TrEMBL record:
Lineage: Bacteria, Bacillati, Cyanobacteriota, Cyanophyceae, Nostocales
Record-linked NCBIfam families: sufC (TIGR01978)
Family: Belongs to the ABC transporter superfamily. Ycf16 family.
Protein name, as recorded: SufC, Fe-S cluster assembly ATP-binding protein
Domain ABC transporter, residue spans: 10-254
Keyword field contains Transmembrane: no
Pfam family, one: ABC_tran
InterPro entries named in the record: AAA+_ATPase (IPR003593), ABC_transporter-like_ATP-bd (IPR003439), ABC_transporter-like_CS (IPR017871), FeS-cluster_ATPase_SufC (IPR010230), P-loop_NTPase (IPR027417)
Listed GO MF terms: ATP binding; ATP hydrolysis activity
Keywords, alphabetical: ATP-binding, Nucleotide-binding
């Protein structure tokens, strides 16, 4: 939802990053305001997941230049857990399995850690049970998943749903969803999209990384960006996703290349 004069939540300027010494991000620029939903599309290997992991503070990615300001704070100076506590949430493309850690315990610790960072009191197990019950409903998830080890043996779609459950609980200021639609059946896609829509508010913002226009039928973005070769090479409204669906990426890449050489 575009709200005039709303606060800039995330400002990314000329961000560059390497993986194992190889430059992957080559000058990313993006501004996200409160209440907005941004979709990032783009060919395979263009740097979309790298961008999301750099924002979350993944240690394998080395930032080599540029800046990322999140709510007035230099995000790049914060440890990954500090970023999470300050309200950045990344739903992974491939959620990790953690055997031996129950989903419920994980969620409670994560939730209380976020509350602590907000200067709020931790909540006890009983109150947490009530809260989680309510959040399970957002993603129509069965309570039996809570007693299982985190993501262990979960199907691909169940893992994605569990990521949205975490997001519903943590209520981040900025949610980054990396291909949350991949591996979801048609009903699950709708449920997950409804969950994301229910959580969207003028106070938070979402970045959706997706390959498919169909997700954007359910979660309508305010802006669509195309990432290629480690940069955002063009941006538009939701109609850009439809155009990409019918025309592919070549024309955007050609226009970008022509602009680069000044044709
Ligand atoms: N450790 C590594 N060493 C060298 N290159 C790497 C390494 N990790 C990732 N890359 C490369 O970085 C590029 C960007 O990868 P990334 O996962 O960010 O792309 P993506 O746009 O999310 O792709 P997809 O749409 O396929 O998920 C790819 O070419 C990938 O091979």
């Amino acid at each position: 939802m575009i709200i005039e004069n709303s606060e800039v939540v995330l400002s990314v300027r000329n961000l560059t990053a390497n993986v194992d010494g190889t430059p992957i991000l080559k000058g990313v620029n993006l501004e996200v305001r409160s209440g907005e939903i941004h979709a990032i599309m783009g060919p395979n290997g263009s740097g979309k997941s790298t961008f999301s992991k750099v924002l979350a503070g993944h240690p394998a990615y080395e930032v080599t230049g540029g800046e990322v300001i999140f709510q007035g704070q230099n995000l790049l100076e914060l440890e990954p857990e500090e970023r999470a506590r300050s309200g950045v949430f990344l739903a992974f493309q491939y959620p990790l399995e953690i055997p031996g850690v129950s989903n419920l315990d994980f969620l409670r610790v994560a939730y209380n850690s976020r509350r602590k960072a907000q200067g709020l009191e931790e909540i006890d197990a009983f109150d947490f049970d009530d809260l989680i019950e309510e959040k399970l409903d957002v993603v129509k998830m069965n309570a039996s998943f809570l007693s299982r080890s985190l993501n262990e043996g979960f199907s691909g779609g169940e893992k994605k749903r569990n990521e949205i459950l975490q997001m519903a609980l943590l209520e981040p200021k900025l949610g980054i969803l990396d291909e949350t639609d991949s591996g979801l059946d048609i009903d699950a896609l709708r449920i997950v999209a409804n969950g994301v829509n229910q959580l969207a508010s003028p106070e938070n913002s979402t970045i959706l990384i997706t390959h498919y226009q169909r997700l954007l039928d359910y979660i309508v973005p305010d802006f669509v960006h195309v990432m290629a070769q480690g940069q955002i090479i063009t941006s538009g409204g939701k109609e850009l996703a439809l155009e990409l669906e019918s025309r592919g990426y070549d024309w955007v890449l050609e226009e970008f290349a022509a602009a680069e050489v000044g044709v």
